[in-house]
Amino acid sequence: MSPTDEGFVVTAISAVDGRSTIECWHLDAPVQISSVPGTDGASNTNLGPVTSLAYTVIPSHFDGGLHNAPCAQFVSFLSGQAVVTIPGTDEEAIIEGGANGLIIAVDTSDVSKEGHRTTYPGDTPTVALQLPFPGGKIPPHKMRKEGVVANNDVVGNDSVAVTGLLALTFGGKGCIDFATDDVSLPGEERGELHLASKVDLAEHTISVL
Question: Are 133 and 72 in contact (CB under 8 A)?
Fold first, then answer.
């Protein structure tokens, strides 16, 4: 892979002075151009290791209530819609499931008193992946601005948002394609990813292709 001058931006639910807040983060992880057969020429960002994977289906018109992030983690909304609001403020993030559905949630109870509220107003279920950071360590980043990632953050500003297939690599020997829920792994690790199941991903990495 050859590095480019582009960067990776993502909406983050963070905390400042004991209160949750919505921010646009610029991750230090570089966006690169793949030279791997099958994705040659596509952009790729190595977002680092994750410890586990939870696949969750949330009913339509569901109210998750006021809560803290259970741990510092990536959350990838594969389908549906999530609306995140911060109590006592007009801060709001509307997250559409799909290519731009990856966010970071780090407003855990030790840094945010009240947390945030998440509702799912769509007429169809919302599918989400939760991917905790090892040891709660937040990826290196810079805060680009307060608020969500906007179109002008990713067009003409040498930055890109999440675009494409989310894949997990297992020591270079297999991957999960979330478009089909098929798991392709060597030998005894082969299986299928089922609703609300967890996959141990210790020592493995997450990439966006």
Answer: yes
Q: For residue 157, what are the contacts with CB-CB under 8 A and spacing of at least 6?
A: none
- pLDDT digit string, tens, across residues 31-57: 888 898 999 999 888 898 888 999 999
Domain that holds residue 74: 7-146
The set of residues, in sequence order, having a beta carbon less than 8 Å from that of 27 and lying 6+ positions away, is: 7, 8, 9, 10, 45, 47, 139, 140, 141
Domain for residue 85, yes or no?
yes
Give the count of beta carbons closer than 10 Å to the beta carbon of residue 170: 18
Total number of domains in the chain: 1
Flag whether 171 is in a domain. no
Q: Evaluate whether residue 23 is within a structural domain.
A: yes
CATH code assigned at 81:
2.60.120.10
How many Å apart are CA 117 and CA 205, to the nearest integer? 29
The pairing of strands 7-16 and 19-27 is: antiparallel
Structure tokens belonging to residue 29: 């992880």
- Please check whether residue 193 lies inside any domain of the structure: no
Pairing of the two strands 19-27 and 141-146: antiparallel
pTM for the complete prediction?
0.71
Q: Round to whole Å and give the CA distance between 76 and 92.
A: 17
Q: Closest by alpha carbon to 10, among 82, 106, 103?
A: 103
Amino acid at the residue 176: I
CA 63 to chain centre: 20
